[in-house]
Amino acid sequence: MNTELIASTLRVSTPLIFAALGGMFSERSGVINIALEGLMLVGSFAAAVGTLLTHSPWLGSAFGMAAGVLLAAAYALFVIRLRANQIVAGTAINMLAMGLTPFICKILYDVTGSTPSIPIAERFHSAPLYLCWVLVAGCFLWMKYTPTGLWVSFAGEHPEALDAAGIRVNRVRWMAVLVSGALAGMGGATLSIFLSSSFSRDMTAGRGFMALAALIFGKWKPLPTALACLLFGFADAVQIRLQGVPVWDGHAIPVEFIQILPYLVTILVLAGFVGHSRPPKAIGTMFQQG
Amino acid sequence: MRKFLQPILAVVFGLALGLGVTRIAGENPWHVLAILGKSAFGTGYDFGMTLFYSTPLIFTGLAVAVPFQAGMFNIGAEGQLTLGALAAACIGALWPGVPWPIAPAFAIVAAILAGSIWGAIPGWLRAKRGSHEVINTIMLNFVAAGIASYVTLYLLKNPDTQNPETRSIGAGYLIHQFALFGGAPVSTALPLALVVAALIWILMWKTVVGYEMRAVGQNESAARSAGINSGRMRIIAMAVAGGLAGLVGVGEVLGNAGKFRLGFSPEYGFMGIAVALLGRNQPGGVVAAALLFGALHKGTADLDLETEHVTRELSLVLQALVILSVSADGLWSWMKKRNEP
Q: In the 3-class helix/strand/coil scheme, how is chain B assigned residue by residue?
């Protein structure tokens, strides 16, 4: 263990932390968010486009968040208003993001693979690294001490009680899903304008699902979830670190094997801990105004 | 009536919206539609390619439909089919001398087994550890891709080419290709897919295991009180699904390439989700939907060349829109309400 590895862990964890916090709002309000992956993907694309346009990573990430919100609104429309199955619709949203990003990329830059690269001076250097932890604290306080935070929890645990108190359950869920779009979009933005120098095709590579796994591992609470993200980030950092390093008799482990490490860790963590983790009671269920 | 009307309307709605998107890209939607139709059905070769793409979609559509009937969502068909195809190619490359009737049978069994094992893992994890198959199957897709590239690039690399592919399989493994389609690789895999679809219908609707799987899917706690081992049914459903996805390797490895090529699948596994949902998770519907999406895939593949801005990714957008419109229950009840004054 050395400082380089710790620094790398913190860096590669940031997209996961943003996305997982986003997932928390949606799932605590009762809406499963398989679409996190797609929300991140459009976020990373729009952030790259925004940064190339405005030459500012802050404005660029605003683009990313806006794109996340927009796609999240489509998701909310289908699962809340039109009562689509949340897992099915979430998968469709992911496919939509996978299809739309290269499609729009082609229109804007005439290539489907990736956006032009963003000059280093216009990218984030370390801001998201701190910002995500500020957000962890913020989300903790929000969920625990504000009325809106309480509404979100009630929408996911006892929607009837919230309804009886005169609060529109589905309106709370709409807001929660939109917030999750903004945060997942920000998570995606950190991928393209913080951790790398451009958007590339399908660059989220399952991170939305890892964020979901972290959420389950972290029992849908901000701080434990962020710590779980660090664990997955660590697996990713080790993976990057081990590439090409001779470990046994002068031979390196083939890259193809090292790269699957974070995915294996995710499966093992889920298998080991999910039994101890209780999801919000009304998750995945529709609420119909009585 | 709704049984047929809903999928048809969903396709019309999805296509209309998707073609509207091409309008934004600066193309004439009618022109795009004409290209789609022409390149999917224009010549015998085009139609053959449509059938060639439809074949794996029948398998992956069934691989999504069977677990769906048992209450699970398999988005891991991509990984399952990768390992199935890889297994078939490994057998064929390692024992090239096996003669004809035994060789393909041998390779097909290997493909089914490899896919089944890969499918059974998330089934087991769901049944015994309670972890959700959606996350696990996605993760296993990445793991399968890693294994496939390792085997292809290190263990069975084709020495004659720079392409990421394995050595060729023995000549005895190749299955019959129909000459009708002007060189399009339509092989015995297509009739095999139709037979398998019929077998799956029998399994799901005419046997006890099938009945028990569907019971678990409809109401798990009721099924359990009736004495059905729901965990076992979940594992079986996922293993069957994996085997079905593994069969994609038959058309690709034995009927087309004669080897395993990295990245041969244009996300057949994901397309299977749209196919299954549009086909209402029933074998007959899956076959029909697979033909439609096979045609769409062939059509959109040519858009890259024929138009300036529209790319083959339009296919993914169309699938997503079709899935969304099929799954939006509220849309249909809302329309019904409007029709009943």
A: CHHHHHHHHHHHHHHHHHHHHHHHCCCCHHHHHHHHHHHHHCCHHHHHHHHHHHHHHHHHHHHHHHHHHCCCCCCCHHHHHHHHHHHHHHHHHHCCCCCCCHHHHHHHHHHHHHHHHHHHHHHHHHHHHCCCHHHHHHHHHHHHHHHHHHHHHHHCECCCCCCCEECCCCHHHCCCECHHHCCCCCECHHHHHHHHHHHHHHHHHHCHHHHHHHHHHHCHHHHHHCCCCHHHHHHHHHHHHHHHHHCHHHHHHHHHHCCCECCCCCCHHHHHHHHHHHCCCCHHHHHHHHHHHHHHHHHHHCHHHHCCCCCCCHHHHHHHHHHHHHHCHHHHHHHHHHHCC
Q: Which fold has domain A3-276?
A: ABC transporter involved in vitamin B12 uptake, BtuC (1.10.3470)
Question: Tens-digit pLDDT profile for chain B (341 aa)?
Answer: 667 787 888 888 888 888 888 888 788 889 888 988 999 998 999 999 999 999 999 999 999 999 999 999 999 999 999 999 999 999 999 999 889 889 999 999 999 999 999 999 999 999 988 888 988 999 999 999 999 999 998 888 888 888 899 999 999 999 998 988 888 899 999 999 999 999 999 999 999 999 999 999 999 999 999 999 999 999 999 999 999 999 999 999 999 999 999 999 988 998 999 899 889 899 999 999 999 999 989 988 888 777 777 778 888 888 888 888 888 776 666 666 666 54
Nearest residue of A to residue B324, measured between CA atoms: A89
Q: Where are the domains of chain A?
A: 3-276
Quote the CA–CA distance of A221 and A20 in Å, as a whole number: 10
- Contact call for A270 and B125, based on CB within 8 A: yes
User: What ipTM was assigned to the predicted interfaces of this complex?
Assistant: 0.89
Residues of A in contact with B147 (CB under 8 A): 256, 260
A267 and B309 within 8 Å at the Cβ level: the answer is: no
Q: How far is B330 from chain A (nearest CA, A)?
A: 4
